[in-house]
Design goal:
By secondary structure, the protein is mainly alpha-helical. It has one domain (7-77). It is 73% helix and 0% strand. It has three helices and no strands. The chain has helices at residues 7-18, 25-56, 64-76. The longest helix has 32 residues, at 25-56. Keywords: Toxin-antitoxin system. Belongs to the ParD antitoxin family. This is Type II toxin-antitoxin system ParD family antitoxin. Pfam families: ParD_antitoxin.
Length: 78
């Protein structure tokens, strides 16, 4: 499998290896993929919880745009 990275991503990978936290680029990428999987799982769980609250609670005064923006803000602050 071949994967292309931006210059910034290549520099990040190199810095991680130079720091001694990883032995090679493959370890950095595998770690990033594991974290991405955890992150996606958390986002999906959060969305399911919000949907469940929506079904079970009374009507909300927030619009769909408000809810989406709230989630984006929460993710940016993580």
């Amino acid at each position: 499998m071949n994967v292309s990275f931006t210059k910034k991503q290549e520099e990040y990978i190199s810095n991680q290896i130079e720091s001694g936290d990883f032995q090679n680029a493959s370890e950095v990428v595998r770690d990033a993929l594991r974290l991405h999987e955890v992150y996606r799982h958390r986002v999906i769980q959060d969305l399911k919880a919000e949907i469940e609250k929506g079904w079970n609670d009374s009507s909300s005064s927030r619009s769909i745009k408000d809810i989406i923006q709230s989630k984006k803000n929460k993710i940016e602050n993580v």
